[in-house]
Amino acid sequence: xxxxxxxxxxxxxxxxxxxxxxxxxxxxxxxxxxxxxxxxxxxxxxxxxxxxxxxxxxxxxxxxxxxxxxxxxxxxxxxxxxxxxxxxxxxxxxxxxxxxxxxxxxxxxxxxxxxxxxxxxxxxxxxxxxxxxxxxxxxxxxxxxxxxxxxxxxxxxxxxxxxxxxxxxxxxxxxxxxxxxxxxxxxxxxxxxxxxxxxxxxxxxxxxxxxxxxxxxxxxxxxxxxxxxxxxxxxxxxxxxxxxxxxxxxxxxxxxxxxxxxxxxxxxxxxxxxxxxxxxxxxxxxxxxxxxxxxxxxxxxxxxxxxxxxxxxxxxxxxxxxxxxxxxxxxxxxxxxxxxxxxxxxxxxxxxxxxxxxxxxxxxxxxxxxxxxxxxxxxxxxxxxxxxxxxxxxxxxxxxxxxxxxxxxxxxxxxxxxxxxxxxxxxxxxxxxxxxxxxxxxxxxxxxxxxxxxxxxxxxxxxxxxxxxxxxxxxxxxxxxxxxxxxxxxxxxxxxxxxxxxxxxxxxxxxxxxxxxxxxxxxxxxxxxxxxxxxxxxxxxxx
Length: 543
Description:
Elements: E1 6-12, H1 19-27, E2 31-33, E3 38-40, E4 49-53, H2 65-75, E5 82-90, H3 97-111, E6 119-124, E7 132-137, E8 140-143, E9 146-150, H4 157-177, H5 204-211, H6 217-258, H7 274-283, H8 289-346, H9 353-387, H10 392-402, H11 404-442, H12 455-468, H13 474-485, H14 495-542
Antiparallel strand pairs: 1-5, 2-3, 4-6, 5-7, 6-7, 8-9
Helix pairs in contact: 1-2, 3-4, 6-11, 7-11, 8-9, 8-10, 8-11, 11-12, 12-14, 13-14
């Protein structure tokens, strides 16, 4: 189930934080903090997917993560300086990795980068059940010459609320394009009148312990909350499905009562449920539960194949994009190196103390630039074999001919059709199950709890009644159950047959008792709602 999480914090010196260390932790890269001379590196089991998105007029060096955040540290002089803003966002698990990356890229580009911020985006997939993105945003405007003034408008609390709402819109649009009907919302459970309880954020330490199989208090509480929410969701789905069936029956009865009783004209057939019609087209046969449960795994495998192909395409596209940026950074570094070397060559062998210090500083910068260029060359050379290009010109040619967009759109359309078929068959299966429950409930007009049976119990009851060619009462089921507990009875049956029959009857009895309990809870909840409405009405009159 898609979840919503969107939180923001400020990375600040007053809290003892460093933007270089924060970027190293989130990207999984080795970054040197030039202020302290320390190498920052935090090992991760799963390497994050990292990208830097920048305004169009930014200098090339901002694509170098190490230099970017060192420049931030240099420009900020105050001891309590706000270095960066960080946004943490949960990615919809229903989307493929490639779709998640495209979603977060579009959102960050339009909501932050187009407003003038530089965004360092890192996608974390250490926990498959919790894919999320860390977005570090600069607080100063960027010009071709470097960082300018702080933009105080970006601190507006109303803007944060706008981002929170926009994220739900972007995510829901992406889910819809992928053919997924799950939705997320920035609204709280209380605002939406939901009975579900929100889970707690584990935090890095508790999450690490849980990953190692060590249970934590927060983890245990979340598991209890998830059990509660699962029951709430199942009950809600059951009510919705039951309401749909009841509405169809009511409409059919109204139609039958209002139709003219003419012997010369046959009654018009009841309009078929659209899900049933669509399921017949998908299955090329009248829909039944066995046919549906045979087809659904095939659709899941179909979606898996699409996702794999899509992931391969997006990885290739991402690799080309990353190497393209590396070529740009390498070119920028080479240009800067050339300027430094020319400046160094103009200096004489002997000079003032200041000139000797400047020369030493230049020499150190030249060595650092050469190391960075070498690192970029190593990465580019590695991808020459992977992506199959010889030089930059050949790289651009292959990048232009890649044309993954059309293939990705085709995959998106296929996935949407597969998800549609999956949804149709699942809804049809629910309708068929509810039909069985309704048929059984109609055989027990004096037992309203039978409308709250689960499908398995209803099917067992229907089978038993059809075998005996009569409607068995709850007392009949209990009597038969007791018979199979008696060792002297049914001696013609094997122990396995007796146990199977006993388990079947026991399951029916337990299912009917559970249905009675569910009905009681439902009725109590309806009474409580009625009382609340009455109180509200009395308060409005009194007011």
